[in-house]
Amino acid sequence: MRRNWPLLFIIIPLVELYLIIKVGGYIGAFWTVMIVITTAVIGVNLLRMQGFNTLKRAQQNMERGAMPAMEMMEGIVLAVGGALLITPGFLTDTIGFICLIPFTRQALIRAVIKRGSVQMHGFHNTSSYQSHSSGTSDGRENKNEGGRTLEGEFHRKDD
C-alpha cells in the first residue's frame, strides 16, 4: 500500500474531474461551482465547531489527569477532513464530511487502531511506580525514593 500512495495523487484528481464534469452536465456549470463553494463554506464552519468541541474535551480530560489520546487522534482526522473539504470536488467533500461527523470520525479512528496501523500508549501513573534502587547510577542518593525520577543531561542547540 505504501508504494501506491503516489497513484492516489493521480487517481483522485481524475475521479474528481470526472465527477465534476458529469454533475456539471446534469445541472450546469454555475450550479456545480456553487455546490463546490457551498460545501467548502459549510465544511470550514463544521470543522471550526468540531475542532473547538474536541479541544474542550481534551482540556477536560487533562484536568482530570487523563490522557486525551482519542481527542488527539480526532484532531488529526479533523485536519485531514478540513483539507479534503477545501479541495474542490465531490469525492473529497464526501470523505471530508465523514471525517467531521463525530460518530463516523470515532468509528474510523477505532477501525484504524483495531487494524493495528496506529498504536496508542498511555502514560503510567507515577504514584504506582516503585523504585528498585535507593541510589542513582553514579552513586548519589535518590531523594525521591517512592516517586519516579528521570535523570539526564540537557543541552541547548541554538540554530
Provide structural commentary.
By secondary structure, the chain is an all-alpha fold. It has a domain at 7-113. Helices cover 64% and strands 0% of the residues. The chain has helices spanning 5-27, 29-63, 69-86, 90-100, 102-115. Helix 2 packs parallel to helix 4. It is elongated, with a radius of gyration of 24 Å. The two termini are 37 Å apart.
* Average pLDDT level: 79
What share of residues are in beta strands? under 5%
How far the N terminus sits from the C terminus, by CA atoms, comes to: 37 Å
Number of helices: 5
Q: What pattern of helices and strands is seen along the backbone?
A: HHHHH
Q: What would the principal axes of the Cα set say about the shape?
A: elongated
- Sheet of most strands: none
- Record field, number of beta strands: 0
What structural class do helix, strand and pairing data support? mainly alpha
Tell me the helix content: 55-70%
Show unreliable segments: 122-142
Structural Rg = 24 Å
Features:
mainly alpha, elongated
What secondary-structure arrangement, pairings included, does this model have?
Blueprint: H1 5-27, H2 29-63, H3 69-86, H4 90-100, H5 102-115
Helix pairs in contact: 1-2, 2-3, 2-4, 3-4
Task: Please provide a brief summary of the model.
The protein is mainly alpha-helical and 159 residues long. The chain has helices spanning 5-27, 29-63, 69-86, 90-100, 102-115. It is elongated and about 70 Å long.
